[in-house]
Amino acid sequence: MTSATEYHLGLLKAKLARYRAELLEPSSKGAKAGEGFDVQKSGDARVVMIGFPSVGKSTLLNKMTSTVSEAANYEFTTLTAIPGVMQYEGAKVQLLDLPGIVEGASQGKGRGRQVVAVAKTADLIVMMLDATKSLDQRRLLETELEAVGIRINKQRPDVVFKRKTAGGITINVTVKLTKIDEKTIRTVLQGYKIHNCDLMVRQDINVDEFIDILLGNRKYTPCMYVYNKIDSISLEEVDRLANQENSVVISCEMGLNLDYLKEMIWEYLALGGQLHQQLNEYAS
Q1: Nearest Cα to 256, choosing from 19, 33, 56, 24?
Q2: What is the residue-wise DSSP string for 102-117?
Q3: 82-86, 90-94, 97-101, 156-160: which range is least confident on average?
């Protein structure tokens, strides 16, 4: 890709990101009383379960907690956010069963905006997937989360951005940039009408990551891919899915591998050492 192409692509991406951000801003005029899933955060951490309809989220909530969430073999059983509490190693982890989302959720289809907005409050996202269906379901869910500014299994880029009232733009780069150049950086800043700022780039970022830094509202959240209904697929397929990165295979119906899932949630939340320290301090 030529530098001229990168320049124009950077400008285009900046405009698209601004447009999407405006679309996702909640409208106070159009909101109706009672809309949304305003569930108070409780416990030591919050785990949000997202997935397409009828994938087994409600059944999993029932199995992992003492909460009763309606489960059935037809779509859209859950119509609001249902919280439950999973107790593990002295910790209380809030599990949220969200309504099944559909393709286009980030644009508002199927109450999708409310669902993904709650996902932004999660300490961990459990992406529930049907092991009997194609891998497209995972890609579509990842796309919906990406569209609302949730960056799963990624770290925030090592970039320091600070606005100022005067003095122009100061850019300091401590690494070799191979995916973006200073001209593109200045173009994107211009697109956001930023004319005075200090920028320290300590990582080889691309245009998308730079835009994320400027917007400042991105959420970097760990995500676990949980494949349900493994009792309906071959052992070879179970093995293949289980060996994928950040993946756990289960059967809610048969109660298979749920203890291991609890253990992995504990590890992903990095609660072990942190909570044991808190409990010891409380005991003393």
Answers
A1: 56
A2: -TTGGGTGGGHHHHHH
A3: 97-101
Treating both helix axes as pointing N-terminal to C-terminal, what angle do 57-64 and 258-268 enclose, rounded to 10 degrees?
Answer: 90
CA distance 273 to 106: 36
Least confident of 9-13, 86-90, 115-119, 166-170: 9-13
- Do the Cβ atoms of 48 and 275 come closer than 8 Å? no
Phi and psi for 15 in degrees, rounded to 5? Answer: -65, -40
User: What is d(CA 11, CA 201) in angstroms, rounded to the nearest whole number?
Assistant: 19
How many angstroms from the chain centroid is the CA of residue 119?
Answer: 6
Polymer length of the chain: 284
Q: Measure the N-to-C terminal CA separation of the chain; round to a whole number of Å.
A: 62
Helix (H) / strand (E) containing 263:
helix 258-268
Q: Looking up tokens 């996902």, which residue turns up?
A: 119
Pairing assessment for the beta strands 159-163 and 197-201 based on DSSP bridges:
antiparallel
How buried is 161 (Cβ within 10 angstroms: 0-12 exposed, 13-18 middle, 19+ buried)? middle
List the helix and strand counts (H, then E) for the chain: 9, 11
